[in-house]
Amino acid sequence: MSDYNFAYLDEQTKRMIRRAILKGLAIPGYQVPFASREMPMPYGWGTGGVQVSAATLTPEDTLKVIDQGADDTTNAVSIRKFFEKTASVDTTEETAQASVIQTRHRIPEEDLREDQILVYQVPIPEPLRFLEPSEIETRKMHSLEEYGLMHVKLYEDIAKHGAIATSYAYPVKVEGRYVMDPSPIPKFDNPKMEMAAIQLFGAGREQRIYALPPYCQVVSLDFEDFPFEASKADHPCDMCGATDSYLDEVIMDDAGNRMFVCSDTDYCASRRKAGHVGAQAAAASAALKETAA
Amino acid sequence: MNADVLKGGFANAPVDAAHAFRAAMNVMARPGTVETLEGVEPPAPMSIAAGTLILTLCDPDTPLHLAGDWDCQEVRDWVAFHIGAPIVGATHAMFAVGNWNALAPLNRFAIGTPEYPDRSATLIVEREALVAAGATLRGPGIKETAEMALPETEAFQMNALLFPLGLDFFFTSGDQVSALPRTTKVEAA
After folding, report:
1. How far apart are the CA of A144 and the nearest CA of chain B, in angstroms?
2. pLDDT value at position B33?
């Protein structure tokens, strides 16, 4: 028994959020304004995602929260505890066990199923915001499907750097209509957005909710001669040896040594449990054996 | 006032509404699927699913239109007590409940504006039965194709042409619900 209403928010707030989610699903990629509430955590810590999760959760759900792919960072741990306390839901770190996954800036490596829901925390929902600061203008640009400015930005990338340098929050076009910010996920994750699960996006400070139904067409913007590329560090994971996962680069010492590890901690841990060993993990266990002997 | 209007709400509102919303979200995200929607007992002629849907989504902020036989004193009293939504004409409604004939003509309802396509009405169409066979559906939320029996196909084809404006539909029968958002392309069987 908790002194909070189920999932913290009052019922009228949840109804308002639920109506926004339904309109978001009906107009994929369009940012639905909603009356975002003050949450007991600062803006930038996932207040939008938390409100969407609160309106979505049922007591039977199992919640997983990741921050840049990791289950064990402050942000993920505190949001998980928040819902354990206010909604009495089970929580998990295993992607396959979760029915609702709230994420900051990653899509899990494991394919999501139809019975799962992915909730994104979004800082700036408007993909055109850094090109056009006025909300009145960007709203008009969306209504007129006037996305030339975004292509100019990508073109300037090519002119300056010889390639599209945008590596995260890479803009996508949804169902051939709305250009959408996929939140700051690495562009490596963009192709995964055409998935079986429902995807919901919540931006608390900016007061916007948007959504993607399952199997929705999501195309990363590009040019014929500079096609989109879902890039990652060209290296296997040093812990589990995976070659297909998105990697974090970790600086090891002042001498410039570094290692690459899966950003998805659950994916890496389950691979290591299954017996996969990466280069540095193998070296470390060999060194350990030597000291023991 | 008839004491019956006090009955028929959610037994445990936060949890029942959460379950109801998940069913509503699932069918809106996956046109053609049918889910059970229950927890509420509205007065006739409103179905359990339609009653549960408006109790989950409507409140004093959402003007509601009751069409045809659904605009009766029992339903009005029940809505006034449990939901508090203002009962309005079709033009100003965010939500509308009724059967297909009573809801026509559809061009009375708000379809949103180019800047705010979300400011459009959601229609809850009461049906005799929900059958997952008939018209072919394609679009977001559908892997390849889905099938659904519709009251007619032309109205939904016209509605899809308005995209990103347009109406969104729930279909209800007994305790069953399915949905058809404006993005779904409908082809007659």
Report:
1. 8
2. 96
The residue with tokens 């992915």 is A118
CA A186 to chain centre: 9
B171 torsion bin: left (phi>0), alpha (psi -120 to 50), beta (else): beta
* Nearest C-alpha in A relative to B184: A26
Active site residue A29: yes
ipTM higher than the 0.95 cut: yes
Burial letters A32-63, b for 16+ CB under 10 A, else e: bbbebbebeeeeebbbbbbbbbbbbbbeebbb
Which of B118, B137, B170 should we substitute to test contact with A (largest number of A Cβ atoms within 10 Å)?
B118
Give the predicted TM-score (pTM) of the model: 0.96
Active site residue A262: yes
pLDDT bracket for residue A290 (50, 70, 90): confident
| Cis check: omega of the bond before A40, within 30 degrees of 0 | no
Bridge-partner residues for A250, per DSSP?
Answer: A259
Beta strand B35-36 with A62-67 is unpaired
> Do A178 and B164 count as a contact with CB atoms less than 8 A apart?
yes
- Judged by CB atoms closer than 8 Å, whether chains meet at B57 and A14 is answered as no
Burial of A274: CB neighbours in 10 Å, binned 0-12, 13-18, 19+: exposed
Averaged pLDDT score across all residues of chain B: 96
Provide the 8-state DSSP code for B120.
Answer: B
pLDDT of amino acid B106: 97
Asked whether the beta carbons of A154 and A223 are under 8 A apart, the reply is: yes
Q: Give the whole-angstrom CA distance, residue B126 versus residue B188.
A: 20
Closest CA to B107 of B162, B147, B38, B60: B162
CB A138 within 8 A of CB A128: yes
Torsion of CA B24, A111, A230, A102, to 10 degrees: 50
